Fold:
Amino acid sequence: MKVGIVRFPGSNCEDDAFHAVVYQLGEEAVMLWHKDHDLQGSDVIILPGGFSYGDYLRAGAIARFSPIMSEVAAHAKNGGIVLGICNGFQIACEAGLLPGALLHNDVGYRSMPVTIRVEHANTAFTSAAKVGQCLTMPIAHGEGRFAASEDLLDELESNAQVLFRYVDASGETTVDANPNGAMRSIAGICNAARNVIGLMPHPERAVDPILGSDDGLVLFESLLVAAHA
Amino acid sequence: MTRFRVSVHIIPRRGLLDPQGKAVTDALHTLGFAGVGEVHVGRHLVIETGAKDASAAEASVRTMCERLLANPVTEDFEIAGVVKE
Structure:
């Protein structure tokens, strides 16, 4: 499996993603420059976290027009796996690769560990996890409040596109466990074709016990299951 | 081609939680402005652009809003003014 990690001006989690893929999974990864038009034969594309273009205008709004995004969109259209983490999730939503939008948190910038519950295991990024499994990993964002119309939210639920929700220690969604005011406690979703996945928490920062958690590893291991399927 | 200065307001869609607007509302109430209902915090952009006339300049900025400046999922925009430079 070859993973291409797109580096935008202002990305800051691309090395964490590289570390997770190369040193924890033992797979190949390449950095892709946002101005190039070449995915270098990558099977999986990661849009990493950070503050592309300083989050000017809206988080992800300008990065979506980076040259490489036309190749990323074509990759997604052909069924290729695209994973957007944090700012990458924002970029994917702005690019229309994922539905909905990510708005300013209800309480400002949050940097803290959260617990998310896996809602569906039938995607390339959740297949090694169990439905209902709770994973602890960090968040670090100011614009992560998932928002969509009630109709779209219902559609996401009925299509099993809500992949992760913020939960408390007992695995229940509560107001206090929701760090940003996301509608229906949504932390991550996929597109209707299930090959584009986005989430606000950072699994790539939770792949080794010395980081405080290795709960994110199971998500990256899911990519391997998909690659060798 | 004439130069125009087009102003546009971009505001959070009504009904969506606007944390900045809520914080400002609460502060205004604290200051005693009891008559204040809701406050919405958005963006004001001024775009200098060349166009053949004012309506073409406005149409161009509308397209800019639809494609980049406003998020169609969560924001509304209105052209606040078109001034010939």
Observations:
- DSSP finds two helices and three strands in chain B.
- Chain B has a mean pLDDT of 95.
- The interface with chain A takes residues 12, 16-17, 19-20, 68-69, 71, 73-74 of chain B (CB under 8 Å).
- Chain B has one domain: 2-28+41-84.
